[in-house]
Amino acid sequence: MNSQNFMFLLGDIRRNLLKLGETLFHHEHLTIAQARVLFHLERNEGIKQAELADILDVAPITLARVLNDLEALALIERRKSRLDRRILNLFLTPTSRQELEKFDADMRGLLEVTCRGISAQEIAQVTDILEKMDANIISFLKAKQDAKADPKRMPPVGAVETPQTDSE
Question: Per residue in 21-58, pLDDT tens?
């Protein structure tokens, strides 16, 4: 498989996972966008809205609308920061934790459909590879951001080692 096909495959998998998630997602009053916010907030409780928007790769105003809806449903709380009272930090409520348990059941269904016929060992290998790829991307982007302050620190694009495949 060439690198272009590999990158397109990753994009296709992401898109198809979102479609499958919409098919398997069965909540009365939560959208997938809201569940996604709750999921990431669970992993980053106390985060600022702008930071969460960055993680979710959405515009802050788009996230603000979702957060307003979640707050109206009593699923999140906005609390003033102890360090800077102008900053609001985001927190889950006990009700949202119950919703996340339901969401987790949907995710198990998604995993079951997606990984049918794939062994636990293969899933672990793919997970390990994807985590390494994600770390490489994050590292490169951080280096690029650091290079804006000091251009001499930017690593060349080819400095990232690529794994060898059996066909090479």
Answer: 777 776 767 888 898 899 999 999 999 999 999 999 99
Residue 165 has what DSSP assignment?
P
d(CA 17, CA 84) in angstroms, rounded, equals 39
- Shortest CA distance to 167 belongs to which of 24, 17, 5? 5
Same domain flag for 18 and 74: yes
How remote is the C-alpha of 110 from its chain's centroid? Answer: 16
CA distances from 165 to 3, 37, 118, 162 (A): 11, 37, 20, 9
| Structure confidence by residue, pLDDT tens digits, 121-152 | 999 999 999 999 999 998 998 888 888 766 66
For residues 72 and 12, state if they share a domain.
yes
Give the confidence band of 98 by pLDDT, cuts at 50, 70, 90: confident
Answer for the pair 107, 90: CB distance below 8 angstroms, yes or no. Answer: no
Domain encompassing residue 145: 119-168
